Amino acid sequence: MNPLHTTEGLLQFGLRDRWYPLCPSEHVRPGQLTRLDRAGEELLLWRDAAGVVHVQEDRCPHRAARLSHGVHMGDRVACNYHGVQVDAEGTVVSVPGSPGCALEGRRVLRTFPAREHGGAVFAWFGLDESAPPAPLEVPEPIAGEEWAHFLCYVEWDAPYRYSLDNLLDPMHGAFLHRNSHTMFAGKREAVFQIRATDKGFVFEKTDQRGVNFDWVELTEGGAQWVTLDIPYPDTAGPGGPFTIVAALSAISEHRHAGFFWRCRKVSGWQRDSWRFLYRNRLEARHFAVLEQDREMAEAMPADAWDRENLYQHDIALVRMRRLLRAEAAKQAARLTEPAAPAPVPVA
Amino acid sequence: MPASYENAFGDELEAVYGRGVHDLPGIVAALNASGVRPANGADWTESSFTAELARLSGTEN
Ligand code: FES
Ligand SMILES: [Fe+2]
User: Fold this and answer.
1) How remote is the CA of residue A155 from the centroid of ligand 2, in Å?
2) Tens digits of residue pLDDT in A93-102
3) If you average pLDDT over every residue of chain A, what do you get?
4) Choosing a second label site near A227 at 20 to 30 A (CA), which of A43, A104, A341, B39?
5) Global pTM value
6) Nearest residue, CB atoms, A276 vs list B20, B24, B56
7) Which residues in chain B are contacts of A274 at CB distance < 8 A?
8) Of B15, B17, B59, the CB nearest to A272
9) What stretch or stretches form a coiled coil here (chain A) (predicted)?
10) How far apart are CA A288 and CA A211, in angstroms?
11) Which ligand ends up closest to the CA of A297?
């Protein structure tokens, strides 16, 4: 059975009816064919002559050879095995070995709606692939003009769910990152509360804000976003805390891609100052902090979730896992339900 | 322009900011009291400082 039709598989590779970031935009070079595994799919990414990015299944509709081993022809891709040509809509436009054959003109290559935003390529993986995608709603810090941002892209040897756990666990800031430039302050004991929002929830300390990693918001809808603030020390200059907008996509059961947009609401010279300091020194410091997370996540045992003893700080994890599991079960049920019986023709 | 200049400028800027000085006149005065100068050796002004930040931030490329 296709793992993407089971609750477990959907949890492992990511729910359907979601936009997922696939890679930074610059990874898809003009004139080239890029192969990526994401969200349980084997993908081919390429840009047409106008620079528009296309995301399709990396599988020739003829005999399943890798289209990524083929030839980029500007507005189409030619398979290298027998020369079949497919366009950006997934339609076979030429079968050179058998001109006029029935495959020509058929739309048979799985093609996923794609967008670029905030320096990354996104694709929509729908439960029903013939249905149109939901709009890609991007959080304010990467969409808003008053914000500046840099995208930090990483690939970790850990299930994406460990990284999601890490993001929904603000308390690790005061321990794992206690010697970092940003998370040295704040209490080591905290009481957290959960506040429901339109599309998810906020998990926050009840008695401290703006001191450490004190709150996190999960947004579940047409995409899954995690947003949080981390205060900067005075040395970072004017502009307030920096915000992280994070999104994750599975590469395999054991590996994932992480997108961390580091954002700050700054304009004018303050924006220039942050951008300069970010490039000149802050980026390296932020990266060192992220490396601490990577080391933890990659070293976690494969059965981490099977033997845990959670406490009050972990209620966001419990809520998030329950939310995802319920949705995955619903999607799996829809994917396996028998097709509705054909209507009885009226005589 | 050698990168060492950018590092020295970054060091000085962080030091000034670290003292809680986050306003333009205060920053310019504090930089002028330090050893870091723009390429022409002149004192910093608000406009030379913000122009330098714009250049260093890479906003224009
Ligand atoms: S497998 Fe691609 S053309 Fe035959
Ligand atoms: Fe962390």
Assistant:
1) 15
2) 999 999 999 9
3) 94
4) A43
5) 0.94
6) B56
7) 57
8) B59
9) none
10) 20
11) 2
